[in-house]
Specification:
9% of the residues lie in helices and 43% in strands. With 286 residues, it is mainly beta. A hairpin with a 2-residue loop joins strand 7 and strand 8 (134-142). The longest helix is centred in the first third of the chain and has 26 residues, at 2-27.
């Protein structure tokens, strides 16, 4: 009897030990963590910096450490991502997605490269643009914390050569007449080639103080100005929430979607002497 008892006791202990150590082994394997990267192509379609294909900038492939990330390719004034990358130092290359012999472009021709230092469980965006006859980029961190109720988060990325101020107005109609509020400062002295922090604003703007309760179709417009100026370089009215950037937004067709996160991109013009352009207003979390 003793031998039988010992036999089953030892078997039970072995099973318990196996379960314990198996559980520890499983618990010790952490879930995968990634550095998340979005790439925004702010190169104008008719840029004087790159060889043009039928009047347009060539489509680009995103290559990270020798691996192409896109199933197709990225055109000008568009964005892709977020891409889940291994944390650490990554080499990112923007190359020609197709060969265009007439334009002197070969397949895989490199237009720009940079080093991305990705952090685990962090989000970042790279913005491609033109400067002094060449393609360059900046990479900024993205804070994607969920906005409070009835709020959105908005930031501005300034890719131009000069600092800018950004104001916003509320526009709507009262009995069919257009009513616009006094401009309100939203971002001040955003330096060249930098991004502001995200700031919270109401997802549905309050009606202007001089508007009647019948005020309807409330929308924001954003005015970009040289620092300290009272005149606008360019004005942006938000387009509908979309994965496609819309540089020709209609001022009276869209509002911000509650608790979303938006980026306004101000880029240089297509030529060195052209005025700045607001080419994008997009939702960071589609």
């Amino acid at each position: 009897m003793k031998s039988i008892f010992s036999k089953y006791t030892n078997l039970a202990l072995a099973m318990v030990a196996s379960a314990i150590f198996s559980g520890c082994a499983l618990d010790a394997v952490p879930p995968p963590v990634y550095a998340e990267l979005m790439v925004v192509n702010a190169i104008p379609a008719a840029s004087s910096t790159v060889p043009l294909v039928a009047g347009n900038a060539p489509r680009l492939e995103i290559n990270v450490d020798g691996v192409d990330l896109l199933a197709d390719s990225m055109q000008s004034s568009s964005f892709r991502g977020y891409f889940a990358l291994q944390p650490g130092t990554r080499n990112v290359r923007l190359t020609a997605a197709n060969a265009h012999p007439a334009a002197g472009i070969t397949l895989g021709q490199q237009f720009h490269s940079y080093t991305f230092n990705g952090e685990a469980n962090k989000f970042a965006s790279t913005f491609l643009f033109t400067e002094n006859g060449a393609i360059t980029s900046i990479t900024v961190n993205d804070n994607l914390a969920t906005p409070d109720t009835n709020r959105v988060h908005v930031r501005v990325v300034n890719l131009t050569a000069n600092p800018i101020d950004v104001f916003r107005t509320t526009t709507g109609t009262v009995n069919g007449a257009l009513v616009t509020s006094t401009p309100e400062s939203t971002f001040t002295n955003v330096a060249s080639k930098t991004a502001s922090n995200f700031v919270p604003i109401r997802s549905v703007p309050l009606r202007p103080g001089n508007a009647l309760p019948t005020f309807v179709r409330q929308n924001y417009s954003f005015q970009i100005r040289a620092v300290g100026a009272t005149t606008n370089l360019v004005t942006l009215a938000p387009p509908p929430v979309s994965a496609t950037l819309n540089p020709n937004a209609n001022a009276n067709t869209a509002t911000l979607e509650n608790q979303r996160i938006y980026t306004i991109v101000v880029r240089p013009g297509a030529t060195p002497t052209a005025a700045p352009v607001v080419f994008g207003f997009f939702n960071n979390r589609i």
